[in-house]
Amino acid sequence: MAFVDQQPTSPGSVMGRRLTNRNTNRYSVTALFSMAAEQDVEVEDDLARAQKRLRDLKGKISSQSKKNFVLERDVRYLDSRIALLIHNRMAEDEQREVERTLEEVDPTEGHYPDDRKLQQYSNLFFLLQSEPRHIAALCRLVSLSEIDTLLQTVMFTLYGNQYESREEHLLLTMFQSVLSAQFETATEFGSLLRANTPVSRMMTTYTRRGPGQSYLKSVLAERINSLIEHKDLNLEINPVKVYEQMINQIEEETGSLPPNLPRGVPPELAAENPDVQAIIAPRLTMLMEIANSFLVTIIESMETVPYGIRWICKQIRSLTRRKYPEATDYAICSLIGGFFFLRFINPAIVTPQAYMLVDSVPAKHPRRTLTLIAKMLQNLANKPSYAKEAYMITLNPFVENNKARINQFLNNLCEVGDFLESLEMDQYMALSKKDLVIHITMNELYNTHSLILQHIETLSPNDKQHLRILTDELGPAPAQVPRKENRTIELNLYSRWETPVQDLHTALMDSVSQSEMLYMETKSILVQLIRSLPGAADQQPYNLAAIAERAATTRDATLVRKGIKVKEMLRELEEIKIIDSTDGHKLMREEVAAELAHLGNLREKVLLETKSLEAVYKTICDHNSYLRTQLEQYKAYLQNVRLTTSKDKGSTIGVGVITVGGKERKPSKAVVLGPYRFTHAQLEKEGIIVESNVPDSRRPNIYFNITSPSPGAFIISLHYKGREKAILEMDLKIDDLLEKQKDNKHLLDLEYVQLNVPKVLALLKKVFAKR
């Protein structure tokens, strides 16, 4: 029987004592037995095949989520550096660092740690995974600049299987520890969980895992897409902006402005204008109706909110009650809402394209509407503050009318059961697994090792503790390897101090009587046989003796062995008077039928979940493609910088220098590429045109020419069929477009049309990259 490290454990650190000393109820033991049986059996029926497909899909989602997290981090880093490049404020060594960020990993480069080191890392990462308090403490100790790299390892490697209960529950145990410490050290109620700290970054990253993304897509995508279809629906309620739009329209229609409507009026005057009030009044009604439809959808989705997110809400509530016993229910709900809405729901509403809930950046008016909806939900979930945006007070009826409803919802979110008993069972089962594996890069390995060493005195002050023993043996952390050599390795996890479970029967004997063990195993084998024998599941009521006989006489050696075994087991159960053949083994027969009915229902659930997750996987893959496109644009930009930078450092004028085979040579004279022609309909279909002021009747006669007079420079011209001269031309530089993208300015105004910046970049790359 396995023992676990006897160091002091937190409430969530699982299995502080032998499983056999617990009053394990029959359900838990049956579940444990079934879990063990599943590892040993290969049943090939529709359910088994569906479960395998689902497991494979979940594995792909977990793997792809990690890739996206890494790519998003690269894009964030390059966003911050590209601006320096654009303004020529980056040293050469920084330019090389940026280039290295774009290098692909070469599987033939680099080397593995030796076998002894790998074994030590296997022990260390088993300890870190199975005792989350160490990682929890480390997350509180590292700096904000270090947290993203650590979170990558924690969320997507150490607990990377996002749909596996043991890893998910261990990760939540870590959150419990981190949140407890956050509450203990908090100095004031108002600042709790709101500042940009490693803890708040952790919580946001957690919501971006597969289950969170799946929920957002299923709940928000349809609602947001139906809203953004109405591109011209203007629901602006800021009086200053409404006033400006109103006088612009008057000027456009009449050619001049009346003297009583001056430009640049203060907010108070704009708000007092009766025409502005008349425009805003119906918009307020419509905004509250739309916000209410979002709210109803979210409230009705409570049962599908991922368990982990509900459990974190539950921890926030219980920790707040303990730390601030005088806090009102309203104040507690504002903290829960701060997590659920501020860090989870609202970012997806405001930037649905970043969460792949929509195909492209919403047009100007729907984008503003979504921002207002998010503000309304935030004011509802949090104590509203109208100091900066006084005009939002006009939406206060929405807050007042729904306050009780949202508090009820936030409290209901917290009503979920605990997982510590099932985690204890999962941890126990982990000791009998021979395939406890994580996939980790060399740099993740070395970075985690390095961070632990930096804080070892705090993490493990006693040199007899297991963490200290393992880090002492490992010695200094190796340096980070170049990106090209940052290979991924498969690391088997196992414990130095815990004995693997060899025999489940022996291990469970103290908890369950021998007769009950025999009964459970017999039932389990019979269920397997009925699932494996063609047509057996359709022949009800089940004749258990006949099923055992049929299995024992098949040509399948595995089924023969199980059939002979279960015949003997049925005989033993009859001898000890637990079942009776005269009533056709009625008790056993009914339990087997119930189990198979449950498995039949389970198959429907598995197929439903598979269908839902296939959509999530497609979304995650699409997002991966989008991120890769962004990185390709950065590569193209850096290539352009190399082509146009003169020998005189810091100057961007003159002939560029290209390095070929280690030698510098001047490039040949720049070649003009294009023009390449695109119709209005083509660009609209591709989502490149976001808004168009061209009348529908004239659009078939409009086309665009794109020319590149030199690397990184482009001219987009708008033409009307039959006219020789362009209606308008715009000069573009790739760095201007990249800077717009970096600053989240996704629209390019061409007077008659507005273009989507990321899609323009993608089009330029597609047309000019290989020419």
Automatic annotation (TrEMBL):
Q: Quick check: keyword Cell cycle in the entry?
A: no
Superkingdom of source: Eukaryota
Which terms are listed as keywords in the entry?
A: Coiled coil
Q: What residue stretches are annotated with the Ras-GAP domain?
A: 166-382
Gene Ontology MF terms in the entry: GTPase activator activity
Q: Which InterPro entries match?
A: RasGAP_C, RasGAP_CS, RasGAP_dom, Rho_GTPase_activation_prot
Q: Which residues form a coiled coil?
A: 40-67
What is one term from the GO cellular component aspect held by the record? Answer: cell cortex
Q: Where is the signal peptide?
A: none
Task: Specify residue ranges for compositional bias: Polar residues.
Answer: 1-12
Q: Pfam families, alphabetically?
A: RasGAP, RasGAP_C
Q: Where is this region: Disordered?
A: 1-21
Biological process annotations from GO: negative regulation of Ras protein signal transduction
The record, for SMART domains, names: RasGAP
Q: What is this protein called?
A: Ras-GAP domain-containing protein
